[in-house]
Design a protein that fits this description.
The protein has 303 residues and is mainly beta. It is 13% helix and 40% strand. It has two domains: 209 residues, Jelly Rolls (Sandwich); 77 residues, Acetamidase/Formamidase-like domains (Endonuclease I-creI, Roll), CATH 3.10.28. It has three helices and 21 strands. β20 and β21 form a beta hairpin. The protein is globular, with a radius of gyration of 19 Å. It binds calcium ion (2 copies).
Length: 303
């Protein structure tokens, strides 16, 4: 029978790495409630707490890693995000000189924001809707560990706002046990995450983890009730968009039985190629996605 586990936010890592000892072992089909830290591990508590110094341990922790029994290279995890419960308070911030408008951002600034029901309170009078999402989700890569600040074919810091409640993230298994990590929840984030910083907040994420045997994946893939979403990342924006698009044209050929030319044409008419994160200049690659309606895939499959 499937079990439910709880993993404390004391169990965090700053890289996804096959040498990390598992914080928890689960059986495929189990559910885990993961307590996640905000991107600064709880060190930002008031408007006067600025991001003007490096975090002592690193930034962007992921809770984990979770060993999935029986997972082996060539398999995939299907991680269903069932709920995201946000802490009462999070923060937004500017780092001087950083992000897409870094040339205009002369000073550091932090603003604590409160979560009130399904709204964020920004200052006294302004409110906007929460849009909870998971910024970091991934498995340990086959080679050396990768910082939880970075994205890659193992997942990691993808900052894809479709990874919210009701979505399922398919991740390649690269090492025995998979070693899943998840963190960097945002209460809301606009596409681009242009300052480098979403609405960073502690949370509890309820996720059910399934194992798909012999399910080779080149990169993470996301399913929502409405869409299939491929992913890309690269320091160059065009290359990053191209990777997500290539993944999508392959998905369409495979699932819809289309030729390359038909899939490419249909993509141009009906698929959105979008940016998840583009907060350069800086060390972080651009992350991207291509989004297709599941209904269109299904119509193609029947044709
Ligand atoms: Ca992030
Ligand atoms: Ca973040």
């Amino acid at each position: 029978m499937a079990s439910t586990h709880r993993l404390s936010r004391q169990q965090i890592v700053y890289s996804l790495d096959q040498t990390h000892a598992p914080a928890l072992e689960i059986t495929p089909g189990d559910t885990v409630v993961l307590e996640t830290y905000d991107a600064r591990t709880g060190t930002i508590q008031r408007d006067g707490d600025l991001l003007d110094h490096a975090h002592p341990q690193g930034a962007n922790p992921a809770t984990g890693p979770i060993l999935v029994r029986g997972a082996a290279p060539g398999d995939a995890l299907g991680v269903e995000i069932q709920r995201i419960d946000l802490a009462p308070q999070g923060f937004l911030a500017v780092k001087a000189g950083m992000g897409l408008l870094g040339h205009l951002a002369k000073d550091f600034a932090t603003r604590m924001v409160q979560i009130e029901g399904d709204q964020v309170r920004f200052g006294e009078h302004l409110r906007f809707p929460i849009r909870p999402m998971v910024g970091v989700i991934g498995t340990a890569p086959a080679g050396p560990g990768i910082s939880t600040g970075m994205p890659g074919s193992h997942g990691g810091n993808m900052d894809n706002r479709y990874i919210g409640p009701g979505s399922k993230v398919y991740l390649p298994v690269n090492v025995p046990g998979a070693l899943l990590g998840l963190g960097d929840v945002h209460g809301a984030m606009g596409d681009g995450e242009i300052t480098f910083i979403g609405l960073e907040i502690c949370a509890e994420v309820t996720a059910r983890v399934e194992l798909l045997k012999d399910f080779p994946l080149r990169r993470p893939l996301v399913e929502t009730p409405e869409y299939w979403i491929t992913t890309g990342d690269h320091p160059d924006t065009t290359q990053a968009l191209r990777i997500a698009a290539e993944e999508m044209v392959l998905l369409m050929q495979e699932r819809m039985g289309l030729s390359f030319a038909d899939a490419y044409m249909l993509m141009s008419a009906a698929v959105d190629v979008q940016i998840c994160q583009c907060c350069g200049p800086g060390e972080f690659p651009v992350t991207t996605r291509a989004v297709i309606s599941k209904a269109l895939i299904e119509r193609g499959a029947k044709a």
